[in-house]
């Protein structure tokens, strides 16, 4: 039985650069043999089913995007169960009602322990960060656009706001 996956593309359709139309992305995924393909907004969120492993799905999607669009795109893949666990565990969700102020940064592998320790030691107020495995949970009480928080030392990841995380779990291919 095929497994439901969520693929998160990093750094596409930002400021008119690295354009990947969602209709083309859906067609590309269907051409790779993925089932129940659906996309959500233009930032590179695609849900689908596949008999392949998450690692293989990610590699194949990265290679197909590079071939079709002519540039490399990092793709982070989670199973639906992994995404549901992330959605259930945001440490700041209980006290923030505005989903635009809650984010999750998804990494391919856990950030280096020394980078996590340095981030914990830094004064990031009023912003808050908690790293758990391959995710960093962020609370931007004044909004992400006003934050001086720098998560680059944690590695290459892709961020999604809380509304997007919740919506991805509702899409047909993710169920």
Description:
The chain is α+β, with helices and mostly antiparallel strands. The longest helix is centred in the middle third of the chain and has 16 residues, at 54-69. The chain contains 5 helices and 8 strands. The strands form 2 sheets. The protein has a 4-stranded antiparallel sheet with strand order 2-3-1-4, sandwiched between helices. Strands 6-7-5-8 form a 4-stranded antiparallel sheet. It folds into 2 domains: 3-83 and 169-174, SP0830-like domains (Alpha-Beta Plaits, 2-Layer Sandwich), CATH 3.30.70; 87-161. Helices cover 30% and strands 26% of the residues. A hairpin with a 4-residue loop joins strand 2 and strand 3 (45-50).
- Would you list the SSEs in sequence order as H and E? EHEEHEHEHEEEH
Question: In whole angstroms, how far apart are the ends?
Answer: 13 Å
Tally of helical runs: 5
Question: Order of strands in the sheet with the most strands?
Answer: 2-3-1-4
Radius of gyration in whole Å, from Cα? 16 Å
For the secondary structure, the number of strands is: 8
Q: Report the CATH superfamily of the largest domain.
A: SP0830-like domains
Number of domains: 2
CATH topology of the largest domain: Alpha-Beta Plaits
Into which percent range does the helicity of residues fall?
25-40%
